[in-house]
Amino acid sequence: DVKVTQSSRYLVKRTGEKVFLECVQDMDHENMFWYRQDPGLGLRLIYFSYDVKMKEKGDIPEGYSVSREKKERFSLILESASTNQTSMYLCASSSNTIYFGEGSWLTVV
Amino acid sequence: AQSVTQPDIHITVSEGASLELRCNYSYGATPYLFWYVQSPGQGLQLLLKYFSGDTLVQGIKGFEAEFKRSQSSFNLRKPSVHWSDAAEYFCAVDGLVHGQNFVFGPGTRLSVLP
């Protein structure tokens, strides 16, 4: 089975803190994604990466950056967390099918 | 641009009743099509997918879906719903560059009455 692992399930951070969300996949997939999910807004793509060190902006990249130094690992970075970034964050990877991690619940206070 | 619509925001069915969740897509060619299920607080789990061939596809948990090209639809069905099926269901399409251009519908929330 495909496994996408998000290292942190629940985080509480203070406004202005730098936040790292880590994601690892074990299927040698080229493509990896970060989404955020908010009630009534569905899944919104933040960034995706189609290769190591490559990234593309999604629909809502503002306030976020990403890092992909190794094929299996894709990190989402909130440079200075704000309360409006409180959300559920979903990492995913794909070949011709997209697979998701369990999600990371981030609360910014 | 590709798009996915799920006309029903919320559906309630009784346990044991049949279920059909609707999904329509907009795409010029034949896309890759998917259904996912999300339980509260969890990620999305793949139920089934269609790439080509037989237009009726079987998935996990007793679900099936039928691709109808003429209607641009990919509806999800289950003959007898269980209380554990209560969840959010997402239809998705992958078009232009396979593996990179996934578009998700807004989701349909399923409630199951005992």
Q: Overview of this structure, please?
A:
The complex is a heterodimer of chains A (109) and B (114). Chain A has 109 residues and is mostly beta strands. Chain A has no helices and twelve strands. Chain A has strands spanning 4-6, 10-13, 19-21, 23-25, 31-38, 42-49, 56-57, 64-70, 73-78, 87-94, 98-100, 104-108. Chain A is globular and about 35 Å long. The mean pLDDT of chain A is 95. In chain B, strands 2, 5, 6, 10, 11 and 12 form a six-stranded mixed β-sheet that branches. In chain B, strand 5 and strand 6 (44-50) form a beta hairpin. Chain B is globular.
Extract low-pLDDT stretches of chain A.
none
Order of helical and strand elements of chain A: EEEEEEEEEEEE
Content-based structural category of chain A: mainly beta
**What gyration radius of chain B follows from the Cα positions, in whole Å?**
13 Å
Please tell me the overall pLDDT of chain A: 95
Shape of chain A: globular
Instruction: For the record, give the distance between the C-alpha atoms at the N and C termini of chain A, rounded to a whole number.
Output: 37 Å
The helix tally of chain B amounts to 0
Major sheet size, sense and barrel closure of chain B: 6 strands, mixed
Order of helices and strands of chain B: EEEEEEEEEEEE
